[in-house]
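User: Here's a structure from my thesis project, written as structure tokens. My advisor, Dr. K., wants to see whether a designed sequence matches the one we expressed. Can you design one independently, without my sequence as a hint?
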């Protein structure tokens, strides 16, 4: 499937919930609004979109949220999507709080890789950023995931928390290193890809200024003078990777602000409420939930939740045709580039938690 700029679109990020068990300041602080449960797509509806996407050329799917592991049955959904013909990889992004307990189920379902969010390895600061004392839990989950043998990536948002006014450092700690260094050092001892992601001016994130990755790259070169480009394929995303002598893993940069990669963008996003979105910068896209629920195949339970079985749908071919038309229409209208460098030109007003990570 190609967009109007000739880019191949083969990667879909699917948010399965707008709920989370953390309250990260730049994503979902206390008071953030949530969609009514009945407006969230069922697993069967998500599978129907994945089936249609695969027929159109989607090959890689990332399960996101919110926090996907707070939704009951997430492992079952992974298995459902893994069984879709044409889908080559299914990976998951998580904050890691529930990962260790859910890891056996994810492995059994066939998960192909796990991304774990971690912005700092300072316990007090982690608590201040996320609203929870969960650092040890997350670091234990990272180690467990590495032991399992599946590919593991650690994602850190590039914010200078010192300049942003975050105190929260562990008392008595001497010779404090920058947060990015403490996270990067995970790649020295573990076979993980540690990626730094520039903060984009979306939702609550507009309150925080990103660390310029041109500056960060220079700092990385100073600290790790033997760092060299890593040309190996690490996944379907836009990160640029580097190898450091003596490290078991790699370091990566995802530089949406200062390393614009729109010309190679291959992704679309499905929100938890079923809106197919083609660019983070703009609100444009197609409402797939309306397509899925417009006919009599969609019924409501007594509690108001949607019950929909694609396999039982009598007009499945017609539904797939309508879904395909809607998805292709969205892809054709995908913009050529974002305008994060000109926040005043952005038209997307939703928060990242509403869009999906």
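Assistant: Designed independently from the structure alone:
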């Amino acid at each position: 499937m190609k967009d109007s700029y000739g880019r191949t679109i083969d990667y879909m990020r699917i948010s399965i919930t707008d709920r989370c068990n953390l309250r990260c300041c730049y994503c979902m602080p206390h008071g953030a609004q949530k969609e009514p449960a009945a407006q969230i797509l069922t697993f069967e509806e998500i599978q129907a979109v994945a089936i249609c996407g695969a027929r159109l050329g989607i090959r890689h799917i990332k399960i996101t949220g919110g926090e996907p592991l707070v939704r009951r049955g997430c492992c079952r959904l992974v298995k459902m999507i893994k069984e879709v013909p044409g889908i080559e990889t299914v990976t998951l992004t998580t904050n890691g709080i529930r990962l260790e307990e859910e890891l056996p189920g994810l492995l059994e379902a066939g998960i192909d890789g796990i991304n774990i969010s971690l912005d700092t390895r300072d316990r007090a600061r982690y608590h201040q950023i996320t609203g929870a004392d969960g650092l040890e839990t997350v670091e234990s989950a990272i180690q467990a995931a590495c032991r399992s043998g599946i590919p593991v990536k650690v994602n850190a948002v590039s914010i200078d928390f010192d300049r942003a006014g975050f105190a929260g450092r562990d008392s008595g700690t001497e010779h404090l290193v920058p947060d990015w260094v403490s996270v990067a050092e995970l790649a020295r001892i573990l076979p993980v890809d540690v990626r730094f992601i520039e903060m984009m001016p979306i939702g609550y994130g507009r309150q925080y200024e990103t660390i310029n990755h041109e500056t960060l790259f220079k700092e990385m070169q100073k600290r790790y003078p033997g760092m060299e480009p890593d040309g190996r394929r690490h996944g379907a995303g836009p990160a640029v990777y580097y190898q450091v002598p003596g490290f078991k893993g790699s370091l990566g940069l995802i530089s949406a602000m200062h390393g614009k990669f729109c010309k190679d963008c291959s992704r679309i996003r499905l929100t938890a409420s079923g809106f197919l979105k083609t660019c983070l910068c703009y609100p444009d896209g197609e409402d797939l939930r309306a397509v899925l629920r417009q006919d009599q195949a969609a019924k409501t339970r007594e509690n108001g939740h949607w019950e929909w079985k694609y396999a039982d749908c009598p007009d499945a071919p017609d539904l797939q045709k309508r879904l395909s038309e809607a998805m292709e229409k969205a892809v054709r209208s995908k913009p050529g580039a974002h305008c994060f460098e000109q926040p005043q030109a952005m038209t997307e007003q939703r928060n990242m938690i509403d869009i999906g990570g």
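When you compare it with your expressed construct, this may help: The longest strand covers residues 152-158.
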